[in-house]
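Our consortium's second objective concerns turning raw sequence data into structural hypotheses that experimental partners can test. To show how far this objective has progressed, the report includes one record in full. It was chosen at random from the queue rather than selected for favorable results. The single chain below, 64 residues long, was entered without modification.
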Amino acid sequence: MDLLRFTTAGRVDDGQSTLIGRLFYDTKFIFEDQLEAVASASRRLGEHRRNLTRMIDGRRAERE
C-alpha cells in the first residue's frame, strides 16, 4: 500500500480533527480497540455518540 499524506489547515474548532477522524472511520483505518477507546472516552465525557475527534485530539503531537 502506498503512503498518502495530506494536510489540513484552519483555526481552532474549524473541524480538522472531525474530518480526519471521519476519513479514518469511513476507510476502515481504525482498529477495533481504537474505536472502542474512542467510544469509551466519549461515554466518559457524557457524549451520546462516538466522537471521532478523540482519536486525533488526544495524541501528543496534536496537543503540542
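The partners drew two points from this record. Helices lie at 16-26, 32-44, 53-57, 60-63. The chain has a mean pLDDT of 84. Both points have been shared with the crystallography group to help prioritize constructs.
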